[in-house]
Amino acid sequence: MSFLSRLRRFPFWSWVWFIVGALYFILPLLATFEFSLTWDPAIPFKAYQRSFEDKDFWETFIYSNVLALATILFSILLIVPTAYWIRLRLPEARRIVEFITLMPFVVPAIILVFGMIRIYSAPFNVPFTDIQIMQPLTNFKAGTNVLIISGYMVLAMPYMYRSVDTGMRTVDIRTLTEAAQSLGANWFVIISRIILPNIRSALLSGALLTFAIVVGEVTLASFLGVDAFGPYLFLLGQHRAYEPAALSFVSFLLTWLAMGLIQLVSGGQGQAAGAH
Amino acid sequence: MSYLSLSNITKQFGDTVVVDNFNLDIAKGEFVSFLGPSGCGKTTTLRMVAGFEIPTSGRITLDGADITEKAPNQRNVGMIFQSYALFPNMTVAQNIGFGLSVRKESKEMIKQRVDEMIALINLEKHANKYPYQLSGGQQQRVSLARALAIQPQVLLLDEPLSALDAKIRVSLRAEIRAIQKKLGITAIFVTHDQEEALSISDRIVVMNTGLMEQVGTPFEIYNFPQTQFVANFVGSLNTANAEVSEPANGLVNVDGVQLITASDIKSRKKGDAIRVSIRPERFSFADNQKKDNVLDCTVENITFLGAVVRIQVKIGNAKFNMDTFNNPFLELPKIGSKQQVTCSKEAVLVLDE
User: Residue A181 and residue B51: Cβ atoms within 8 Å?
Assistant: First the structure.
């Protein structure tokens, strides 16, 4: 093949747009990284050192990670059986459910959190009586955790539902279910041993998005008064210059690490499901 | 004594009757095929036996027990699907052992049974492969082994060969039949391919628009079709409009040409309009032997079909196909030449619409 014909085959414009897109994402990140190193020329990573030494950083970071994992777990428990059942038995309900899952895009988080505070800051009574069953959820730590995880589940629902639904579209859910049933499997076995493993990469994508939303979320955490990583970063950004830049860069690295792990874990699975 | 019995089975989806008053008794170890065009209700009937659909009315009994409303996972019925339906996340061995692990059998027992099944389908070298690493034919054999591993009372096959290419289809159907005979398992096979049904079955149920048209052995279905639909659907068929001329003697008139039929037309009146059907292979060129029907014809066309040569002839104003076996020394008539063809009176069928 001659040099000219090779040049003609070279996808010039594809590369141009790829480089423009990559620069758009990478330049701000590089700028943030570069800025985070300029605090003290003698100690280049001083902003990182100070951030990691801060007790509040670790406490809020670990707490937000636990919240994220809980949100992912409960979202999977809610959304996988729902999406599965809709695909299997209620395809006519799909449009309605898709509409519901899009609601968090329309209703801002501030509306959601005010609605939650309005309803759950009152005690739970036996209907039509003054007999109290439980104190308001906003009054104790476990109750607030339940509220914030529920709120995060709503915020993450569009991403989680779509990931799971797309994953289910790639496998023949109905026939696999019937095959498993004819072999004696019950619903629990079908979902845990057939459906979940076959949508593993879709679940991981949904989980990553949920994780990213929860760890950086500010509104719900601030108004429910919990010491999460989002409000911590927000406060830090208002009072300090270099540490927020360092932590933003660390957040990016963590996200990329998670994406790399997803690729690593789901590589073989995607091939198997695709071939089927 | 029937092993699997379907009594007065009707299935409706809304106002649409998909299966209408279906009655069938199947003996233990019998291989029965449901044959018919798309939408005739054959798959729905199979799915009712599997438990994926519940009949609107009627009962299904298996070995004396009523299973009409039993859940699919409580029936001990093995099923093979057109799309193989192997679990993509499991290896061949894991797929085959799945039903046994669900039944909480011991690891030793599962391993032994899986090894037996893998040997049965000759895939010993592929036990640790994933479904996507196998060909279509191999995947369907794994699906067969998986269904058989649980030792089902009935094996249901829903068009299992339709997704395979022609050669694999022929070899796999022979393999399925051999395994079924070896294990003595009762089987129901759904297909729209008449050749498949004729070659593999003990009995065939021909279905059309939710109704059973005819039940019989492949020989009976092909040679003695009871309805026009069965005769048309199974094998090739010449059909022509005719008029009854002498009911007592079985004489009919096709476009001015008299034919004698062995079908009973005594109940018809002279001048009644009927349709006669003749299989192409029942015609032959006239020789010196006496035949019931000797007909003058003109050769219109000759088509070479490999093992068979199809000759189109015009008898009166009606056109008929005539099949003759190919051989290298076959002397074919010239197109446009005048000939005489013959057929027996048994070959001339007068069928119900």
Answer: yes
Is residue A80 within 8 Å of A195, Cβ to Cβ?
yes
Residue B73: its chain A contacts at CB < 8 A?
181-186
Contact assignment for B76 to A184 by CB distance below 8 Å: yes
Number of C-beta neighbours around residue A66 at 10 A: 14
Closest chain B CA to residue A175: B85
A274 touches chain B (CB under 8 A): yes
User: Is residue A101 situated within a structural domain?
Assistant: yes
Cα separation, A216 vs A222, in Å, equals 12
ipTM (interface predicted TM): 0.85
- Touching A: B residues 14-53, CB under 8 Å: 50-52
Q: What is the CATH number of domain B4-232?
A: 3.40.50.300
Cβ within 8 Å of A, B 78-97: 78-79, 81, 83, 85-89
* Of residues B36, B49, B67, B28, the one with CA closest to residue B190: B36
Q: pLDDT digits over B18-28, tens only? A: 999 999 999 99
Query: 230-269 in A: which are within 8 Å (CB) of B?
Result: 269
Q: Where along chain B do its domains lie? A: 4-232, 236-350
How far apart (Å, rounded) are the C-alpha atoms in residues B185 and B187?
6
CB distance B142 to B92 below 8 Å: yes
Q: What is the pLDDT of residue A266?
A: 61
Q: How far is B194 from chain A (nearest CA, A)?
A: 25
Is the separation of the CB atoms in A120 and A138 below 8 Å?
Answer: yes
Question: Whole domain around residue A201: which residue ranges?
Answer: 55-230
Is A179 in Cβ contact with B89 (below 8 Å)? no
| A239, part of any domain | no
Tally the domains of chain A: 1
Low-confidence ranges of chain B (pLDDT < 50): none
Question: Going by DSSP bridges, is the β-strand pair B318-325/B308-315 parallel, antiparallel, or unpaired?
Answer: antiparallel
Task: Specify the CATH number for the domain of residue A193.
Answer: 1.10.3720.10
A263 CA to chain B: closest CA distance, Å? Answer: 17
Structure tokens at A154: 């709503």
Residue A119 lies in a domain: yes
Give the C-alpha separation, B30 to B180, whole Å: 9
Q: Got the DSSP string for B279-309?
A: -GGG-EE--SS--SEEEEEEEEEEEE-SSEE
Terminal CA-CA length for chain B = 33
Q: Flag whether residue B163 sits within 8 Å of chain A, measured between CB atoms.
A: no
Contacts of B76 in chain A (CB under 8 A): 184
Partner-chain contact A186 B73, CB within 8 Å: yes
The alpha carbon of A16 is separated from its chain's Cα centroid by a whole number of angstroms, namely 31
Within-domain flag for A193: yes
Q: Which CATH architecture has domain B236-350?
A: Beta Barrel (2.40)
Long-range contacts of B333-337 (CB under 8 A, 24+ apart): B333/B285, B333/B299, B333/B302, B334/B299, B335/B299, B335/B300, B335/B301, B335/B302, B336/B298, B336/B299, B336/B300, B337/B298, B337/B299
Q: B29 and B183 in contact (C-beta within 8 Å)?
A: no
Sole residue written with tokens 């233990």:
B28
Running along chain A, 276 residues long, what does each successive block of 10 average in pLDDT? 72 92 92 89 87 89 92 94 93 91 90 91 83 84 93 94 92 94 95 92 88 89 91 88 87 78 60 40
